[in-house]
Write a structure and sequence with these properties.
- By secondary structure, the chain is mostly beta strands.
- The longest helix is centred in the first third of the chain and has 12 residues, at 60-71.
- It is built from three helices and ten strands.
- The chain has helices at 2-9, 40-44, 60-71, and strands at 78-83, 86-91, 95-99, 109-112, 115-119, 124-126, 136-147, 151-157, 162-168, 171-182.
- The strands form three sheets. A four-stranded antiparallel β-sheet has the order 2-1-5-6, with no helix packed on it. It has a four-stranded antiparallel β-sheet with strand order 3-10-7-4, with no helix packed on it. It has a two-stranded antiparallel ribbon with strand order 8-9.
- The radius of gyration is 30 Å and the shape is elongated.
- The protein is 12% helix and 34% strand.
């Protein structure tokens, strides 16, 4: 029933089997002369793009980005950094709370090295996996080290007279993002980059 509906609605998409009669009079579906014409491009063009991505070998995009950085028109900068196994999207002036043990103390000024993505209004610099340390500089200050709110850990097994309830608080560090700066020399070309291949 479903096949009849498909053929009735889209008769142009399918064609009839074309074969030449064999000596036995029956059609051999595995012969070389049997063919079916199915326009895959007509059906799959909706889901698969046929437009090729242009290869920017002339470096025009890099030149435009370097021009914006040199003139100071990159807009408000943002970055995606990794801290204590978690990723945060930050901008200048943000307050970030990092949970877990972290050695820095109150008042320490630190530099966030693990920058995965950085960018402005019209461009984004994507690391592989990290952006070059000489390209982006993210400065932060430790504002406060404290404990989180009280959390409840409750366990129960029904019909076993078993119930446990525990309360705990985790360490957390509050940091303020002071600035996000991009090297005014601009982005290096693809042949000059020496990006790290692992997280250190």
């Amino acid at each position: 029933m479903f096949a009849k509906q498909i053929f009735s609605k889209w008769p142009a998409l399918f064609s009839v089997f074309k074969h030449s009669p064999s000596t036995s009079g029956a059609a051999n579906p595995f012969s070389a002369q049997t063919a079916i014409k199915f326009p895959f491009a007509a059906v799959c063009s909706r889901y698969c793009s046929t437009v090729a991505i242009p290869q920017l070998t002339d470096g025009s995009v890099v030149q435009k980005v370097n021009k914006q950085i040199a003139s100071g028109n990159e807009g408000r900068l943002f970055a995606v950094v990794q801290l204590c196994g978690k990723q945060f999207k930050i901008t200048a002036g943000d307050i970030v709370i990092v949970e877990g043990y972290w050695p820095p103390t109150n008042g320490d000024r630190i530099r966030l090295d693990k920058v995965l993505v950085a960018g402005g209004t019209d461009f984004s610099l994507i690391g592989r996996p990290l952006v070059s340390p000489n390209l982006v500089d993210v400065q932060a200050t430790i504002v406060e080290k404290s404990l989180s709110h009280t959390r409840t850990h409750f366990k129960k097994k029904r019909r076993k007279q078993y119930m446990r309830i525990n309360f705990y608080r985790t360490q957390q560090t509050m940091i303020r993002i002071n600035s996000i700066e991009i090297n005014p020399n601009g982005v290096e070309t693809q042949g000059e980059t020496n990006l790290p291949e692992k997280f250190f």
